[in-house]
Amino acid sequence: MAIAKAERLMNLALCLLGTRRPLSKRELRESIEAYLEASSDDSFNRMFERDKDDLRELGLVIETVENLDGEVGYLARRDSNRLPPITLDAEEAAALGLAAKVWQQARLAGAASGALQKLRAAGLPEDVDPYEAHGALEPRIPVHEAAFEPLMLACRDRRPVVFDYRKATAAHPEPRHVEPWALECWRGHWYLAGFDRDRGAERVFRLSRITGRVRSRGSRFTAPVPDVVTVRETVASWAGETADRSALIRLRTDAGYPLRAKATAVRELGDGWDELEIPYGHGLDAWLVEFGPDVVVLEPAELRADVVDRLRAVAKG
To answer: Which residues is 295 bridged to in the sheet?
Structure first.
């Protein structure tokens, strides 16, 4: 059974690597003997999807392409599946091992372990253990949002997605058609950066505001993907990390310590309140709302209005 599956995977990989145009499921079924022997279309579809996922787990980059007639095809471009020789020193190997230990999710842990095995085969120093402990603290990045895994896979495979998204100032979610670029974690929250097709511009989405299921679309990206540094800068700006002016707020005494840490000036008002001057950038309104009745925005007026709108949206449910 194991030999039969390995042969089937090898044949599928050769078909996808050897074609110059995307091959449909029908063409792949006609080209691979094991698929021809499938008892039904449903049986073939299940087998093909499992095999495709297995090849991707092994590192094969498989593209999903939709032609003008709406038919979906698959191919694995040789230039996308060819890597230069990899050489890693002890410090680089240690950094990869630390990154592999970050994830708590079983699926990601398995992928990280498999990646390290491939790197060792490609030149990782034999005397370096990437899983060796390098300190008393072990990092963990928790992921609670159901949208994380399908978006991670969509970013990896360059597949557009559709999901319902509720803005902080809206009472109900709206559908968004997005070409996902990358996922970034800021202040304990996960964000997706990508190209919003409906608005024709780059946007950043907080995963906790995605409702329902993330659906993939069998088409190609229409906008160029920026480098990873640019994406991180974009997320930082939308998450409120980039500030170009100041805001004045009132904060209850002994509350809002993260805000106090950011403050450039603090003045005691008495009666249980302090006045703080804090850096003001995109996303500050969403952060201030998290402190509820402990914060009152004094100025600027547009920040105060944004916070009020968000609180009203929360009150509406």
So the answer is: 251
Task: Name the phi and psi angles at 315, rounded to 5.
Answer: -65, -30
pLDDT tens for 85-95 read: 667 676 776 67
Cα separation, 87 vs 93, in Å, equals 10
Helix pair angle (41-57, 2-18), 10° resolution: 80
Residues 247 and 297 sit within 8 Å (Cβ to Cβ): yes
- What are the b/e assignments for 256-267, b being 16+ CB within 10 Å? beebeebbeeee
For residues 72 and 65, give the distance between their C-alpha atoms in angstroms, rounded to a whole number: 6
| Separation in Å, CA 233 to CA 152, 212, 241, 247, 291 | 19, 28, 9, 22, 25
Q: Is 197 helix (H, G, I), strand (E, B) or coil?
A: coil
For 192-243, the pLDDT digits (tens) are 999 999 999 988 898 988 998 999 887 788 888 887 656 667 776 766 556 6
Burial of 38 (0-12, 13-18, 19+ CB in 10 A): middle
Radius of gyration (C-alpha) of the chain in whole angstroms = 25
> 102 pLDDT band (50/70/90 cuts)?
low
